[in-house]
Design brief:
Strand 1 and strand 2 form a beta hairpin. The radius of gyration is 26 Å and the shape is flat. The chain contains eleven helices and seven strands. It is 45% helix and 10% strand. The strands form two sheets. Strands 1-2-5-3-4 form a five-stranded mixed β-sheet. A two-stranded antiparallel ribbon has the order 6-7. The chain is of the alpha+beta class. Helix 1 crosses helix 2.
Length: 287
């Protein structure tokens, strides 16, 4: 059975025909799946599963929840109460995507949900309001009854702690230093590209479109590993123009004020690994 809504074809498929993508990297807990199943049965089924043939592109957790509902003898219903035929689930076909688009979407479908944060004040207002509504099961929000109160307490406490840290922030920071060697290392000693090169070879061998390949090439460069002790040795022996370029690239930090201005403060952790010291911004006086 196929229905069109706003030009989008939603087809009912037997849920047992659908196959998970074997390399789906997202792990779903049994508790999370049961919570989603409870939400589906309370408010109805709202989000079709994306499929390429029988392969799931988006909706692995939804399929697990649907499987749980049917296994327990339940039925799927739409938000208006319409009962779906036994063992069926709404799907949308995306077989027109390239393999690169499909594989990138599978990752993005999970990752983008992790990029959001709570507005703690508004969250508390909403949850406090729901607690006073008769017949509302707060576990349908995704919070279990046992963890709801502790989660709210933790959210508010964490917010207060972050505000306190921002108020007490000091530029007086103990920055780890390194005494460079008199011997300048070869360029090949400064970095390791093995992982980056392996990824680039895999990207080039794929059927992904050119624009997707270019995006993935940029991402692959993140896996280049730098030996910061060797980088410091190379910097000490370099001429002034090269040193300036290395500073602008944050390979070394000589002027901490410039590093803050250029947004490189987050790299402090990487530099501490060079000396084995643990960076602690509160180790110095806040005055």
């Amino acid at each position: 059975m196929t229905a069109k809504t706003g030009g989008v074809a939603v087809r009912l498929r037997d849920f047992r025909e659908l196959q998970p993508y074997k390399n789906n990297a997202r792990i779903h807990s049994a508790e999370g799946i049961e919570q989603l199943a409870a939400i589906m049965q309370d408010v109805g089924y709202t989000n079709p599963i994306l499929v390429d043939g029988d392969l799931i592109v988006g909706g692995h957790k939804r399929l697990k929840a649907v499987t749980s509902i049917y296994a327990s003898g339940g039925r799927l219903r739409l938000p208006d109460g319409t009962e779906l035929p036994q063992d069926t689930v709404p799907t949308i076909d995306c077989s027109g995507w390239t393999e690169g688009q499909r594989r990138a979407y599978i990752i993005a479908d999970n990752q983008t949900t992790m990029d959001s944060e709570w507005d703690l004040d508004l969250l508390k207002i909403e949850l406090d309001w729901l607690k006073d509504v008769e017949g509302i099961d707060l576990s349908l929000t995704g919070f279990t009854d046992a963890s709801l109160e502790s989660a709210l307490t933790a959210f508010i406490a964490d917010d207060k702690e972050q505000n306190s840290k921002r108020a007490n922030y000091s530029r007086k920071i103990k920055v780890p230093t390194y005494e460079p060697s008199d011997v300048a290392p070869a360029l090949g000693e400064l970095f390791n590209r093995q992982k980056s090169d392996e990824l680039l070879a895999e990207i080039e061998a794929s059927d992904a479109p050119d624009d997707v390949k270019q995006f993935l090439r940029f991402a692959a460069e993140r896996h280049t590993e730098f030996n910061y002790a060797k980088v410091a040795d190379f910097y000490a022996a370099a001429d002034a123009p090269i040193q300036r370029l290395m500073e602008n690239s944050a390979l070394v930090i000589i002027d901490f004020d410039r590093a803050i201005e250029n947004g490189f403060v987050k790299m402090t952790k990487a530099f501490t690994e060079m000396t084995g010291e643990r960076f602690d911004p509160e180790a110095e006086d806040a005055g």
